[in-house]
Specification:
Elements lengths: L2 H17 L5 E6 L9 H8 L2 H4 L2 E5 L8 H6 L5 E5 H9 L4 E6 L6 E5 L12 E5 L5 H9 L5 E5 L4 H4 L5 E5 L3 H7 L9 E3 L10 E6 H6 L1 H20 L1 H14 L6 H14 L14 H13 L16
Parallel strand pairs: 1-2, 1-3, 6-7, 6-8
Antiparallel strand pairs: 3-10, 4-10, 5-8, 5-9
Helix pairs in contact: 2-10, 2-11, 11-12
Length: 316
């Protein structure tokens, strides 16, 4: 069957459903940050019609200053969002039941970049930048474990504080702020860049989550959304330049201050992080050992009241 014929059959089926009073169910999906290549697979799935082919209507709504992705999920403004694993563990520990429906990250992207070519582990008591919206749970665990006594300075969305000399070090994602620093002319070496994935903190990050309540009442719809999103990421990996065209469309529509070069670097790194270090494959699954590791680190350092088990995050 040709793709053209397949799409025509899908269209006919949808038309029949509409004539019977049945509409494609809608999911509002909110990534955890502004428009960028970090979320390329979802943009692709929407633009290429993968969601439509799956019989679901999807609207992508990015978070705002007044409405974070987590808040949108909890107040039912959005039905699905991306969360880092550590964020999901915190929410479950607080009593929010979540289901991981798709895991995209297989490796940790967080780094600490130190000023003046110093080793971050030697900067005890240093002023270190951390995202105001979260994402720094593992860094806090590490600083406690290593007795670094960092003074955490919150920043919003860029590296200006660090570049200006106001900070001794800053947290960065290898697909985002790391490249911003490189473009700003910062010296980045093995000496002044601490990569968490290489020091016992290789904990998965981005996954797609829905509430347990929504999953229980929309199981088939959620599974279709996850499958189509995975297809979007697989297409993005096979067609990076065409994917960048789509990413830049969303970037421009949302008036994000970036450029194609930066987004190309981001996409390449995000896709690299999706490949499991052991299997060398893009697995799209939550690893039980990484859940256990993250839960242990966070509980050990007072960030969780109890151990959150792998079984609490997956389909029940």
């Amino acid at each position: 069957m040709t793709r053209k014929l397949y799409l025509r059959i899908i269209a006919i089926n949808l038309s029949i459903c509409c004539s019977l009073g049945i509409r494609a169910q809608k999911i509002v999906f909110t990534p955890q940050w502004t428009a960028q290549a970090q979320f390329a697979g979802y943009y692709v799935a929407l633009e290429k019609g993968f969601y439509r082919e799956a019989g679901i209507e999807v609207e992508i709504v990015h978070p705002s200053v007044t409405q974070s992705a987590i808040n949108r999920l909890l107040n039912n403004s959005s039905q699905a969002t991306t969360l880092q694993l550590c964020q999901a563990l915190e929410l479950i520990d607080e009593g929010v039941s979540l289901v991981n429906i798709l895991q995209t990250s297989m490796n940790n992207a967080m780094v600490i970049v130190s000023a003046r070519d110093k080793d971050p582990l030697t900067q005890k008591g240093g002023r270190v930048g951390i995202w105001s919206v979260g994402f720094g749970q593992l860094a806090i665990c590490m600083s406690i474990k290593e007795n670094l006594d960092y003074e955490w300075i919150r920043f919003a969305s860029n590296v200006n504080l660090f570049v200006s000399g106001a900070l001794d070090a800053t947290l960065a994602m290898s697909y985002n702020e790391y490249y911003q620093l490189a473009q700003a002319g910062m010296k980045l070496t093995d000496k002044n860049v601490y990569r968490f994935c290489d020091h016992g903190y290789n904990v998965q990050e981005d996954g797609v989550y829905v509430t347990q309540k929504y999953f229980d009442s929309h199981k088939e719809q959620v599974q279709r959304f996850a499958k189509a999103s995975k297809k979007g990421w697989e297409w993005a990996a096979a067609h990076p330049e065409e994917t960048l065209d789509i990413v830049m469309k969303y970037v421009n529509e949302n008036r994000i201050a970036t450029n194609r070069i930066m987004q190309r670097l981001m996409l390449k790194e995000v896709l690299r992080l999706q490949v499991d270090r052991e299997s060398k494959k893009r697995e799209f699954r939550l690893r039980p050992d990484m859940v256990k590791r993250a839960s242990f680190l966070m509980k050990e350092n007072g960030m969780l009241q109890r151990e959150v088990r792998y079984e609490e995050l997956i389909e029940k």
